[in-house]
Design brief:
Blueprint (H helix, E strand, L loop, with lengths): L7 H16 L9 H20 L5 H13 L5 H19 L5 H51 L1 H10 L3 E6 L4 E4 L1 H7 L23 H9 L5 E9 L5 E12 L5 E10 L1 H15 L9 H12 L6 E9 L2 H8 L1 H18 L5 E7 L2 E8 L2 H15 L4 E3 L2 E3 L3 E9 L5 H17 L4 E4 L2 H23 L2 E10 L5 E12 L3 E3 L1 H11 L2 H23 L9 E6 L1 H4 L4 H12 L6 E6 H4 L4 H13 L2 E7 L16 E4 L14 H16 L3 E4 L5 H10 L3 E2 L10 H13 L1
Parallel strand pairs: 11-12, 14-16, 16-17, 17-18, 18-19, 19-20, 20-21
Antiparallel strand pairs: 1-2, 1-5, 3-4, 4-5, 6-8, 6-11, 7-8, 9-10, 13-14, 13-21, 14-15
Helix pairs in contact: 1-2, 1-4, 2-3, 2-5, 3-5, 4-5, 5-6, 5-9, 11-12, 12-13, 15-16, 17-19
Length: about 725
């Protein structure tokens, strides 16, 4: 076996070699295969650039399709083999390290654009040939007219030897004479065409102006006209022609005859229709593809007043498992069966089904009653998926999630409608799948806002849009401030101040929580140093310790210990000035490897607090092996203490937790203290410190000490 290509250029040349070997046998060229490969190499390079470009440009792909025609690749198999090569090998050899799903989607769009460019170039070439024929026909007209006046023998030579069909009729439309080429086109042997008149040769596909032009010509108001026209042959088949009809006058200029010149374009038309079909239909399932669907959707959305549309966006549940376990061939057979079932569900006028790609399908219905019809259509689709699909002797259960969008035409663009349907479909999938959901504008807005916040997070950190507020930790015994919890906020340019519940989950999902958490730690430790310089290192004068929340992602980050040490050293702060809060749920079932960074930090002198204690259903025995020094009791245990008398069960639970914590030499902090009665009850129960609105709301560092003292003294 030969070695794999080393660099991008080698992979590109390998793709060009595969392409040339596939297409060369069906190419009408005098070049050798290596010469033909050299012609394809720059085209392959353009395809690679389009695939990897920041934004997709269909124009380049269309130009590559057009260039195939210039390279004499006009056989339909040349396009089919080209698209097969691009589909199978372009992403493999030219995709490099890009996102696989995005590259496959781009490759599909690129193939559609190539097919469109190929069809356009072939049509342009055809038109050029037609023009040449028309010029020759006009020239033949002059020759025929001269022959009629000069020599019957010369006319006969032109008439009978012409490669295009020629017919002569009088001004009443009676066919007088036709040549052999025209009879072969119609598949007849009678030179008079059975005595038929030209006006009898109508066809349902005749252009509106065809017979108006004919009437103008026989009246002498027009010298000639050119149209594309279909004729019925005697056997019922259809003959498509480029028809040029000219008026013949006598020597005095009086109209005498009409001369028809016909070029048979039936095969070329069928080829164009085939190319159009391939460009607008999915190769695997035969359903309309994304581009064709968007054309229909745009037409439906631009319908007149009173018209409505309904759209079902279907994604199969668990389809990736089928591909991974049974292979892509089995997955393809499953998709074909699903496509057949969906096609059978959308047979009413105004309904269509299309495949957008992968295992995503859409069904569209239009009309004034679309609101009711789209619900019925979704129900038919769900019922159609109930029966298992047999693939390779296995009975596969098919389930799907559907997002439904319905509304009046003219209010939204196709992209907006599809985005809403996509969001709704994922809402159905998140709810367990195997169901359909109706679009909800408010839910759409939340998802769009969530996406916008996610994409804006990295730039927000760079632009300094985050800031920190501090909430004091108050000693329940003497009311002194012993520390403060750092709470990050986002000052969003459009949405204002956002709390951590709005963006911390997004930061964790994207991985930005690590740099954001490092920034919060740096700012908080720097603030702790300022407080210590102002209030000293002991006593009850001010907040001496800063509490910083640590997310599960940060906990598993390999640089946690090193980053913390460096931040403390740069700020000139001892480790006892810092307390890292870790949620109980993050430590449930934690192994020694996960606890190792926390143990190292605890050994250095950094306090570790177990946050939201009591919400994670953890085994209390686990407290002995966790390197924590503080329990932060969740507010759910103390809410009843805001009223008097407090719930005796809650009192017993808190009393037991405090006793257990103190027996393990752990301090107890309570969150969410909002009343004086609550604070007093917690003090009696033995809790050490507390925080909440009773003492102070989170605020800027310069106001924290004053607010804490005012709230603590009442």
């Amino acid at each position: 076996m030969s070695a794999e290509p080393d660099g991008p250029e080698d992979r590109l040349r390998r793709f060009a070699t595969i392409w040339s070997r596939a297409v060369f046998p069906v190419t009408s060229t005098s070049s050798t295969r290596p010469e033909f490969e050299a012609q394809l190499l720059p085209l392959a390079r353009r395809l690679s650039e389009v695939l990897r470009a920041r934004s997709f440009d269909a124009a380049d792909a269309r130009e590559v399709g057009a260039a195939l025609v210039d390279a004499h690749c006009t056989d339909p198999d040349a396009l089919s083999r080209t698209l097969d090569c691009v589909d199978a090998y372009l992403v493999l050899y030219c995709g490099e390290d890009g996102d696989a799903e995005d590259l496959r989607a781009r490759s599909a769009r690129l193939q559609h654009a190539m097919a469109a460019g190929f069809a356009g170039a072939l049509r342009a070439r055809t038109l050029a040939e037609q023009e040449a024929i028309a010029q020759a026909a006009l020239k033949a007209q002059g020759v025929v007219a001269e022959a009629l006046h000069a020599s019957e023998a010369r006319f006969r030579a032109v008439f009978e030897g012409a490669a295009i069909g020629i017919g002569i009729a009088d001004l009443d439309g009676n066919v007088l004479q036709v040549n052999d080429a025209l009879m072969r086109m119609f598949g007849i042997a009678d030179p008079t065409l059975g005595g038929r008149r030209a006006t009898e040769w109508t066809h349902p596909d005749d252009a509106p102006q065809t017979w108006r032009l004919y009437e103008e010509l026989v009246r002498g108001e027009r010298e000639h006209y050119h149209v594309e026209k279909a004729f019925y042959r005697p056997d019922g088949t259809v003959l498509w022609t480029n028809l040029t009809v000219s008026l013949l006058r006598d020597a005095d200029g009086t109209p005498q005859y009409q001369l028809a010149l016909m070029e048979d374009t039936t095969e070329r038309r069928l080829l164009n229709l085939r190319l159009r079909y391939e460009a607008t239909h999915d190769a695997l399932t035969g359903l309309p593809n994304r581009s064709f669907f968007f054309e229909r959707l745009e037409k439906a959305l631009s319908a007149g007043p009173g018209q409505r549309f309904g759209l079902c966006y279907l994604d199969l549940d668990g389809f990736k498992t089928v591909n991974d376990s049974l292979g892509h061939a089995a997955g393809d057979r499953l998709l074909v069966e699903v496509a057949d079932r969906l096609q059978a569900c959308a047979t009413a006028p105004g309904e269509m089904v299309a495949r957008l790609g992968g295992d995503e399908f859409v069904a569209l219905t239009t009309g004034p009653d679309a609101r009711h019809e789209v619900d019925e259509l979704a129900g038919r689709i769900m019922n159609a998926l109930l029966a298992p699909v047999s693939v390779d002797g296995r009975e596969l259960t098919v389930r799907g999630s559907i997002g439904i969008v319905e509304g009046p035409a003219g209010e939204r663009s196709p992209a907006e409608v599809l985005r809403s349907a996509d969001i709704t479909m994922y809402r159905a999938k998140s709810a367990g799948g195997n169901r359909f959901e109706l679009a909800d504008p408010e839910a759409d807005a939340r998802v769009i806002t969530r996406h916008g916040l996610t994409t804006a997070l990295p730039a927000a950190l760079e632009r300094g849009e985050f800031f920190i507020e501090y909430q004091p930790l108050v000693h329940l015994g003497d009311g002194s401030v012993r520390g403060a919890e750092a709470l990050v906020r986002w000052l969003h340019p459009q949405h204002g101040v956002l709390g951590p519940d709005r963006f911390i989950p997004l930061a964790e999902h994207t991985g930005l929580i690590v740099p954001l958490g490092r920034w919060v730690l740096e700012q908080s430790v720097r603030q702790a140093r300022l407080w210590r310089e102002r209030y000293g290192d002991g006593g009850a004068a001010g907040p001496l310790r800063i509490n910083v929340n640590l997310s599960p992602c940060q906990l598993t980050h390999p640089g946690l210990v090193q980053d913390t040490v460096e931040i403390l050293e740069r700020a000139g702060v001892t480790p006892d000035a810092l307390c890292l809060e870790v949620t109980e749920s993050a430590l449930i079932g934690a192994d020694d490897d996960l606890l190792k960074p926390l143990r190292r930090l605890a050994e250095m002198g950094v306090d570790i607090a177990l946050d939201d204690f009591g919400t994670g259903y953890s085994n209390l025995a686990n407290l002995r092996r966790l390197p924590v020094s503080v329990l932060k009791l969740d507010r759910s245990f103390t809410q009843s203490m805001q009223q008097f008398p407090a719930d005796p069960v809650d009192l017993k639970i808190v009393e037991g937790i405090v006793a257990l914590a103190h027996s393990l030499d752990l301090a107890v902090t309570v969150e969410g203290v909002e009343t004086g009665a609550q604070a007093e009850q917690l003090r009696i129960l033995g809790c050490d410190t507390a925080q909440g609105w009773y003492y102070a709301r989170p605020g800027p560092p310069e106001r924290l000490h004053e607010l804490a003292l005012v709230d603590a003294t009442g």
